[in-house]
Amino acid sequence: MNLLTSFIKAVAPLVPDSAVALGVREYFNRRHGTWGMLTALQIDTKNQKATLDLELKGETRPLRITVERYELTTTGDKNFIEIKEFDTSREWLNVLARDFLKGKKLEVPEAVRTIL
After folding, report:
1. Tens of pLDDT along 19-44?
2. For 2-112, where are the E strands, in sequence order?
């Protein structure tokens, strides 16, 4: 475990979800700004829920993604998130996401696992 991960793990319980959401939003926008902007993010770590608002390039309306339940697991030294229940503001995306995300575990970095 590196120093940054250790630090995040130590302070994460003390940081409100709104501060975590701000950090995640800034990280996402720097890393994926070519797609558009993550304009709003609310994370409820206690109930494992999240809501994202995205203004994607080429879209005329914002996209809202509501994660009603996610689950974090660790296998060996790898961390995974599985989106258990979700809904979006685009019906076609709901169908596509169910086909491709249902039962899938996505690997996440240790630092992300620590804050979620």
Report:
1. 677 778 888 898 899 999 999 988 88
2. 36-44, 49-56, 63-75, 78-88, 106-108
C-alpha–C-alpha distance, residues 27 and 6, integer Å: 19
Residues forming beta bridges with residue 43, ordered by sequence position: 50
| 84 contacts: CB under 8 Å, gap ≥ 6 | 68, 69, 70, 71
Using CA atoms, how far apart are residues 83 and 22, in angstroms rounded to an integer? 21
Q: What are phi and psi of 63, to 5 degrees?
A: -100, 130
Q: Which is nearest to 65 in space by CA: 41, 82, 32?
A: 41
CA dihedral 32, 36, 72, 11 (to 10 degrees): 70
Q: Find out whether 29 and 55 touch, Cβ atoms under 8 Å.
A: no
pTM for the complete prediction? 0.75
- Which among 25, 60, 20 is positioned nearest to 39, based on CA atoms? 25
Query: Are the CB atoms for 11 and 4 separated by under 8 Å?
Result: no
